[in-house]
Each structure stands twice: as structure tokens, then as C-alpha cells.
Amino acid sequence: MPDQQRLLDIIDRFSTTSVALIGDLVLDRFILGTPKRISREAPVIILRHEGQRDVPGGAANALANMAALGLRVTALGALGDDEPGAALRAALAESGVNTNELIVVPGFRTPTKVRILGGGASSLKHQVARYDIEDELPDDGGWFNRLLERLPTIRDCSALAISDYGYGCVEPGIVEILRQVVGSDVWITLDSRYRIGEFVGVDGATPNLEELEAAVGRRLRGDDEVAAAASELRTSLGARFLLATRGNRGMTLAGDNGNVAHMPVFGSDEVADVTGAGDTVLAVLTAALASGATTLEGAQLANIAAGLVVMKLGTATVTADELRMALTGTHS
């Protein structure tokens, strides 16, 4: 267990630390309603519309988490020239993220996950339906060159995160390009949903158990099998560490010194909502490494943050104060 005061000191340095993130930006849109009656047209509930809430999702959720920690955050990514794109840019700016380097791609529909929630006026609302808008960025059109032109803005960051949700903003070859820009001393971390094993050259990655199993091509049962798979993937990536998130089983950290650490889940294993928890892990881990943490210290803070965020409904963030209170035992 890392020293508590060390972890508190790392959190205190967040406010003077600069980080950047490049990846697939997503808008999470929640449409809220109150049940009205069963439709005569079909066996479905009719909701009376109450409101709408737009929050950053995907890579944008990781950005919002970084900003909530008090970091200076630069975002690199692409938005469509559409209403969801404008809404996402506004939500990021409101959270404190520097959106000046985001590019707009004409004709591209901003990836949007629309959740329809229903419930009584005085009760929790539950998801009754969802639909996704999932365009992929075009192979041509010059948007990628415009993105590359913005890379000099991240030269002074202390760590850089890559968030790959499969919408085309980042390809495995981006690692070498980013390394040339930020140098060898800057941490590059990765969260990739479908192809984590292709991003060779990152310093660390944060797969969940399903992603780790897909990467090594086998089911994993128990701590020993997870540890072996995490070490195997870390070696194939040429990474310094790999942090596997395992839901209510906590996390497993495999380092380049051959050591493996299993961390039990922080707080309760009865979760409220896992939406975006992986984004929080990437954000807090990257923030900690940028602020001078060891990989074990960064993993410990990420584990605490994950335990906090899954107790919140919907796409959510964790603040530096919440981490402090959790560490000192003063959290509610």
C-alpha cells in the first residue's frame, strides 16, 4: 500500500500539472421523462418529456474527469459540424477543458449515445431505451492533417492519454508520432476498446477484463491467470506497466520489474452505475503519473477513483477533494 501522505501530495500537485488527451469524443445525452400511460399504438410506455442533460462521454469523459481533478487539460480530437458536436464542445468548455484545438469535420456526425430515462417525479429514473449515432471519421478529407498540425500545443504536457473508442480518431501508428512530439520522458497511457494489442510503444494501458481476454485470446479465471495475461500483454506492447480493471474484483497491476499487485475494489462492490468508469481510471492514472507518482501509486489512486465513480448515476467525474476525503476516511 503506497504511503497515504505521498498520495495526498500527488493530488495536491494536480492543480499545477498539464496533461493532454487525444481520442474519440462522444456526447452522452440523457433524455428524462415521467411515465404517462401505455400507448394504444404499441405495448410501450409513453413518457412526458421533462428535460435533457448533455455530458461528455468516451474520450470526452476522460477529459472532463481530468478537468474535475484540477489539471490543465488540452483536448485533441474531432467533432462533427452538427448540433451534438456543438453541445459536446460546450459541455467540455463548461467543465474546464481547453477545446481550442478540437477540429470540426464537415459531414461527420458526432458520436452520440442517447439514453431515454423514465421514472416518477420523486423517484430514480431508469433507462428504458437507448440509441447510438456511430459514424466513423472518413479516411480522407484532410481532417487528420489538421489534427497533426495541432500537436505542437501538447509539447509541454507532463503526460498524454490516448482514448480509442473505435470511431477513427486514433490509429496505432499515432503512438510513434506522439512520441516524437512529446519525447521519451512523457508518459503515454492508453485505453482502447477493441484493439489494445496494436498500440505498441505506449508506456501503460488500462484494459478491462473483457478487453484483456480478447487481447490474449483466452478466458481468464482467478488472480494468477489475470496476472499472467496482464504481464503477457504488457510485454507485447513494450509497455512499462499494464493496469487491468476487473469490476468488483478490483484491479491488477503488472509492472516491467516482473512484480504484480492485486488491489481489492475500493468501497462497496454493490455499484450504482459503471458507465464511464474506465474513463475515470485512465484520467486519474494519467494525472497521477504526470504529477510524479509511481505506477503503483497511480494505480492506487485510480482504484479509489473507480470505487467512487461507480456509486454515481450516469456518466460522472471524481474531484481531487473526493479523492482526498476517501484517502483520509472522511468520505460519506
Low-confidence blocks of residues = none
Helix-strand sequence? HEEEHEEHEEEHEHEEHHEEEHHH
Tally of DSSP helical segments: 10
For this structure, the quaternary state is single chain
- Compute the number of structural domains: 1
Rg, alpha carbons: 20 Å
CATH A-level architecture: 3-Layer(aba) Sandwich
How many strands, which pairing sense, and closed or not: the largest β-sheet? 8 strands, mixed
Tell me how many strands there are. Answer: 14
Structural class: alpha/beta
Gross morphology is globular
The end-to-end span amounts to: 22 Å
CATH topology: UDP-N-acetylmuramoyl-L-alanine:D-glutamate ligase
* Strand arrangement in the largest pleated sheet: 4-1-9-10-11-12-13-14
CATH class: Alpha Beta
Helix content: 25-40%
Report strand %: 25-35%
Q: What is the CATH superfamily label?
A: Ribokinase
Q: Summarize model confidence as the mean pLDDT.
A: 93
Can you offer a commentary on this structure?
The protein is α/β, with parallel strands linked by helices and 332 residues long. It has one domain (4-26, 58-110, 136-328): Ribokinase (UDP-N-acetylmuramoyl-L-alanine:D-glutamate ligase), CATH 3.40.1190.20. The chain is built from 10 helices and 14 strands. The strands form 3 sheets. An 8-stranded mixed β-sheet has the order 4-1-9-10-11-12-13-14, with helices on both faces. The chain is globular.
